[in-house]
Amino acid sequence: MKLAIIFPPLPFGWAPIAPPILEYLAALTRREDSSIEIRLISASATPDACDTLDCDLAAISILTPTAVPGYRIAEKLRARGIKVVFGGIHASAMPEEAKSYGDAVVIGEAESAWPQVLRDFKSGALKSFYHGERLVLDNMPTPLYGMLQDRHQFRILNTSRGCPYNCTFCSVKPFMGEEIRFRPIDHVVRDVNAIPEKMYINGDENIWWQGFEQRAIDMFTALKGSGKKWMGFGSLRPVLTPAGSRMLNAARESGMLTVWVGWDAISDESLKAYKANGKVGVDRERAVRTLKDHGIDVSLFYMLGSREDSLDDFKRSVELADRLGVSMHPSLLVPYPGTELLRQYDPYIYKELGWEYYTGAYALFEHPDPAMTPEKREELFYESSLELLSLPRIFRHMFNVPRQGFPHAHILSMMSQLPVRKGMKIAYEKWKADKSYVRQKQHQAD
Ligand code: B12
Ligand code: SF4
User: Fold this and answer.
1) By alpha-carbon position, which residue is closest to atom 15 of ligand 1?
2) Strand-pair category, 256-264 with 104-108
3) Nearest CA to ligand 1 atom 37
4) Which ligand is nearest the CA of 8, by number?
5) Which CATH class is domain 155-431?
6) How many other C-beta atoms are found inside a 10 Å radius of the C-beta of residue 330?
7) Number of C-beta neighbours around residue 436 at 10 A
């Protein structure tokens, strides 16, 4: 039997990070049946690979912005008699939609459902829907790191799933549940050692949790011996707890270079409207300075253009970047399927815009302020992104990266910002050329 596992093209093209599901689902498959021939396709890196693909079964993993390209790939494969199974966060939130483009859909996590899918396929009894359980994470195989070539420079490792908070915009929480499930530390160490590269990404929603600082310290201490550098998403609240300083030192000594922080909203009002209770009331600026004092570089990710946001917030975010000496990466707010935000915004959504617009670069709903037209929000998004990624800012940031991270954190900062700048400039030019089309679609929706 021949199996292809496919990650459709990302909206802004090739990224240096290997889509983690490919090598992970390959490992789950190998564990179930070592005779299956597996081919991995990261379509951003090899856009034509699906055209000539020879396989019996295709597993396609879809996020919301990759759903439409995923459905196009499925149509082509099914026309050639290949069976298609969908999975991933979007397929789990919209199973009926995904089923209309495929033969089967896995709703939820893969571990409990995928072996059954393979058995049913082999016996010719594929079902329409499979439900993956939220298992204890003590039996995850090591992803087949290195199986995917295609110039990907970073692999991802997961050490936990789940989150106790309820941010309205979050599509991960409804998917992974509220209980934090940690992997055994020795499994994490085993997987880090299996990563072929010298640098990796911790792909958890949060690498450290308030109330579980000691667990983070134990894990970082165990990872010291790996000799590898890493980065990941971390929240700000645990940084300021009594154990925070010990935790940051342990993270730094385990090779952590940069923390990506979900800053989420510029104003506290928007933070409250998002019910981002993990962040409300935290002295966020002090936490960022504490991180840098411990030798860890900081990048902030945040959303603009919510119905509570104002035109001023676009400008204020650039000022914040300068004040804190950090790099900042905005996106326009996306109400993903399965989220509370989508239910709240439902009356205002431009329903004409398909999932291919859910990339973070389009205004997707009406705004109460008449000055915040869709066009204005999109234009300001590009302008503030490109201002944050201006060459003087990127170079100035070199002097703000903590010296303890030299030279890796400095190189990483350049390497991550320059390609994004290039991609953003191309996208802005394309947006300017397509604007009339987008406007027309939005007016149809009004
Ligand atoms: C690492 C990461 C990336 C990486 C790699 C992408 C990837 N996911 O493969 C990069 C940096 C490229 C990336 C980019 C983007 N990302 Co991203 N990313 C993540 C992150 C932090 C971790 C993903 C991870 O480690 N997955 C590990 C794998 C194993 O988990 P998984 O894919 O979910 O798979 C599990 C199940 O879903 C299921 N499953 C998945 N697929 C399939 C398929 C089959 C057949 C089966 C049986 C099961 C199955 O089984 C797995 C194990 O149970 C997540 C947040 C999160 N914690 O999920 C966001 C996340 C996936 N990203 C998201 C988005 C939107 C993006 C962007 C597309 C847009 C943006 N503006 O940021 C960009 C694209 C930028 C570009 N260059 O074009 C959203 C998706 C939301 C949604 N509803 O679609 C998430 C959930 C973040 C969020 N909080 O909103 N991302
Ligand atoms: S803190 Fe908020 S955004 Fe992060 S995983 Fe939890 S609910 Fe989602």
Assistant:
1) 10
2) unpaired
3) 88
4) 1
5) alpha beta
6) 26
7) 9
Question: In whole angstroms, what is the distance from residue 82 CA to residue 60 CA?
Answer: 12
Residue 237 CB less than 6 A away from ligand 2: no
Residue 64 DSSP label: G
445 pLDDT higher than 60: no
CATH number for the region 2-132 comes to 3.40.50.280
Of 81, 74, 80, 83, the C-alpha closest to 101 is 74
Output the residue whose Cα is nearest ligand 1's atom 6: 19
Reported as a single tens digit per residue, the pLDDT across 254-311 is 999 999 999 999 888 889 999 998 888 899 999 999 999 999 999 999 999 999 999 9
The rounded Å distance from CA 445 to ligand 2 centre is 31
All CATH 3.80.30.20 domain ranges of the chain, comma separated, are 155-431
User: Would the CB of 28 count as within 6 Å of ligand 1?
Assistant: no
Give ranges for CATH 3.40.50.280 in the chain.
2-132
Q: Is 236 in the pocket of ligand 2 (CB under 6 A)?
A: no
Minimal-distance CA residue to ligand 2 atom 1: 165
Contact 11, 47 (CB under 8 A): no
Rounded to an integer, what distance in angstroms lies between the CA atom of residue 242 and that of residue 135?
32
